[in-house]
Amino acid sequence: AQTVTQSQPEMSVQEAETVTLSCTYDTSESDYYLFWYKQPPSRQMILVIRQEAYKQQNATENRFSVNFQKAAKSFSLKISDSQLGDAAMYFCAYRRTRGGGADGLTFGKGTHLIIQP
Amino acid sequence: GAVVSQHPSRVICKSGTSVKIECRSLDFQATTMFWYRQFPKQSLMLMATSNEGSKATYEQGVEKDKFLINHASLTLSTLTVTSAHPEDSSFYICSARLSENTEAFFGQGTRLTVV
Fold first, then answer.
1. Do A102 and B95 make contact, defined as CB atoms within 8 angstroms?
2. Is A95:A105 a contact under the CB 8 Å cutoff?
3. Which residues on adjacent β-strands are paired with residue B52?
C-alpha cells in the first residue's frame, strides 16, 4: 500500500518570504501522480499543483513550485512571496496512474501553514 | 475548473436514523466519484470509489453495509450512512472526475453530526 508522510505538522513564515513544505511517499509503482492540495478554513479542497512521475521537470504554478526527487521519493512544495491568503492546511497526495477504477488519493496528515503579517 | 456540488453542507441526525449525502457534477459527466472522510484536524481517508453503473469499491475497514454508495448516473453519487451512531460524526467529502487522465474535483463537504 502507498503511504504519504508529511513530517511538519505546522510551519510559520513571514509574509513575502519563502517557505518549503516537505512530503515523502512510499510506493512500488513506477508511474503515478503527486499533488499538493490546499484546504482553507472553509474546508474546500483546492488543487495547488500536480506532478506526473514520468516527467523529470518540476511542476510550477506561479508562486508555487515543487522539488520532485523520484529516487528519494520526495515531493516538496515551495511557496514564494508568501501571502496572507496562503494560510491553510496543505496536504500532499498520491495517486496511481492506472487504478482500474479504484485509484483514489492517498493523503498525508497535512501541514498547517501560518503566515505572519 | 469544473464544479462539484455536495448537499447538504451540514446535517444533524438522531442516533439510529439514516442520512443521505448527495454529490453532483454540475458541468461534466463523472465516470468515477470518490468518497472521503475527514476527522477534526486530521487528513482525508478514502472510503470508497464509485464507478457509474457498477458497485462501489470500498477501502479496507469501511463497512459497506453501513456506508451505502450509489452512482446511478454520470452526474450523481449518493452516500447513505445507515443506522448512524455518534462515532459516525465526521466531515464527508466527495470528488468526481471525467476519466483516469483528468483531475478530480472536490465538493465542498458535508459535516455530519449524530446526536
1. no
2. yes
3. none
Phi and psi of A22, rounded to 5°? -95, 150
- The answer to whether A33 faces chain B, any CB pair under 8 Å, is no
Contact list, B95 vs chain A (CB under 8 Å): 45, 104-105
Judged by a CB distance cut-off of 8 A, whether residue A103 touches chain B is: yes
Interface test with B, best of A36, A43, A106 (most B CBs within 10 A): A43
CA distance linking residue A4 with residue B103, whole number of Å: 19
**Strand B57-58 to strand A60-61: parallel, antiparallel, or no bridges (unpaired)?**
unpaired
For the record, the C-alpha cell of B3 comes out as 464544479
Tens digits of per-residue pLDDT, A20-56? 999 999 999 888 999 999 999 999 999 999 999 999 8
Looking at residue A82, the DSSP 8-state letter turns out to be -
pLDDT at B61: 93
DSSP conformational letter for B41: T
Residue pLDDT, tens place only, B40-87:
888 999 999 998 888 899 999 999 999 999 988 999 999 999 999 999
